Amino acid sequence: MDEKITVVAVDAMGGDNAPAEIVKGAVEAVNERDDIKVVLVGIKDAITAELKKYEYNKKQISITEATEVIETGEPPVKAIRGKKDSSIVVGLNLVKHEEADAFVSAGSSGAILVGGQLIVGRIKGIERPPLAPLIPTKDGVALLIDCGANVDARSSHLVQFANMGSIYMENVVGIKKPRVAIVNIGAEEEKGNALVKETMPLLKECEDINFIGSIEARDIPEGYADVIVCEAFVGNVILKLYEGIGNVMLRKIKGGLMSSVRSKIGALLIKPALKKTLKAFDTKEYGGAPLLGLKGLVVKTHGSAKAVEVKNSIIQCVSFKNGKINEKIKENIL
Amino acid sequence: MDEKITVVAVDAMGGDNAPAEIVKGAVEAVNERDDIKVVLVGIKDAITAELKKYEYNKKQISITEATEVIETGEPPVKAIRGKKDSSIVVGLNLVKHEEADAFVSAGSSGAILVGGQLIVGRIKGIERPPLAPLIPTKDGVALLIDCGANVDARSSHLVQFANMGSIYMENVVGIKKPRVAIVNIGAEEEKGNALVKETMPLLKECEDINFIGSIEARDIPEGYADVIVCEAFVGNVILKLYEGIGNVMLRKIKGGLMSSVRSKIGALLIKPALKKTLKAFDTKEYGGAPLLGLKGLVVKTHGSAKAVEVKNSIIQCVSFKNGKINEKIKENIL
Q: From B148, which residue of chain A is nearest by alpha-carbon distance?
């Protein structure tokens, strides 16, 4: 592979809006950047029909056929083992065989997490690969790690999450000495569950990270830390609640604005400002969640991903490659 | 005690706004309801000075002196054992000796949780008393149980939480056959951490509750369940994140509205509608969190509680007494 080009395999069949929005996102990515090549993985005829709608540099997009599709409800291990010609398995194999730098999919989370480990494989020394999405904060973003890959984690896993998350934020997002915090139920030293109490002294000993101690959930949206370490169950609750509260508040505000003539007129005037504000607080604006600690890059985007999220997720892979994240994780683990 | 009157001991010294807002809330409560008597517990001179500012029925408010104050940072067990004449210890003793039906405090959470168990004591058979606040949903409220009292809970605790929560929602909030759900990271049967997997079949066997299965955090604000069962660490994260996201979104929206002349004019027009909407989604509007399963009622309000929250928390105690919650919990446990 050309070192200056990032090759991204994209699951054209995954998610609620496949293949239309996935293909559109891929086209937008290559039209924006000439250092990206996209390999669309899936049913050839369906992909070709979508591609015909757009103008783009033909050298930047190719198709690799995969005739099967893994559905969201399928048991992950069985699906990965049984559907060898699915877009997820074929896409992950492109990464395994170094024909692609990264694989992006809006398909079944379970299948991507299992497939990433079984096919691409973990970096030697990494105990568990965490899923690490960026979430919006008051003035920027924070990395939430882990948020769904490994429930019932041990303290040694959390220490690896802290290290990998710190490397990611520094080299992909560009935050110098990112502040690393562990999710806790109070700022006081003696608070926490058994896992947090066990992990806390281990994190304090880490010389390579800027560990700032506990963070209460209330302070996550305030942006008090750049890397938010937690086990997957808690991380999943945080991520999903971000989405849920955002959605409900938005609908309530819209409903409230339509409640009187006065507020309806006001609503027209504030629409652009409100839209911009809410967009900044939408988890979908920040691309996909990387599954860190694998030998190649695997990125999970929302099942409901539209073209803009697919595009952002593809472009994110360039920073990951150019930032040499995996090389740095390997050095750190040794 | 007169059965028709609910006597509420109120910690006049607890919280950021004590004693002014606490006393004000007590006065507002007795001015609204003639079936309430409030016993203000704390430093007499300070309370008297505040009471002088208001008109109210003198028979409905009395003072019980307590000369000490437990500060937020103090280690709870030591504070409860050491400060025998603190407003928290004196107030809890009024409940223990049946001189009050309930104790309301905006003071140290830790001290209230520890003191509630040590002084008032658990109902026989209750393994751990959960803290259970009401949180806003799209069109109403849900009871979040447990949210801070017991980390590292066992499945048998969660089953008791589900039962007590269901009784509370039915008899205090007035929801018939409340839908009970357990917080999980996916709707599928095989998902969850060890605790959730162990608790799920036990909840299915409960005949007295309307158990509807798993709830993802995303669906909590949507109002898909009335009683949200979880262990305290997760519950604390949910509660605090509700507050944090609400606060940050509100500030961002306000900031966005001030960004142009157009939106400033719009902001003036929508202000009443927006305020109403955001008020409905403010956790402070729903009174305090009861600590369920104790021999008397203990209610924790926010440290930042203002008069309106104090008033609501006091009035809430009437429904608790009249709904015979503790009698029903006792029957259920047998």
A: A185
Q: pLDDT digit string (tens) for B208-221?
A: 999 999 999 999 99
What is the ipTM score, two decimals?
A: 0.88
Q: Cβ of B274 and A256 within 8 Å?
A: yes
DSSP string, A20-59: HHHHHHHHHHHHH-TTEEEEEEE-HHHHHHHHTT----GG
A vs B, Cβ pairs < 8 A, gives 201
Determine how many CB atoms are found less than 10 A away from the CB of residue A113: 22
The 10 Å Cβ neighbour count of residue B102 is: 25
Kindly report, residue by residue over B83-95, the tens digit of the pLDDT. Answer: 999 999 999 999 9
- Name the minimum distance, in Å, from the CA of B281 to any CA of chain A: 8
Q: Residue B73: which pLDDT band, with cuts at 50, 70 and 90? A: confident
pLDDT digits (tens, 9 = 90+) for B195-206: 999 999 999 999
Tell me if A185 and B221 make a contact (CB, 8 A cut-off).
no
Q: Which two tokens stand for residue B42?
A: 């704390």
Asked if B266 and A262 come within 8 Å (Cβ–Cβ), the reply is: no
What are the pLDDT digits (tens) for B247-301? Answer: 888 787 777 777 788 878 877 777 777 777 777 777 667 778 999 999 999 999 9
* Yes or no, beta carbons of B217 and A236 under 8 Å apart: yes
Supply A187's token pair: 């700022």
Partner-chain contact A237 B234, CB within 8 Å: yes
Closest approach of B269 to chain A, Cα-based (Å): 5
CA atoms within 13 A on the CB side of A302: 21
**With contact defined as beta carbons under 8 Å apart, do A180 and A212 qualify?**
yes
* Whether B260 contacts A269, CB under 8 Å: no
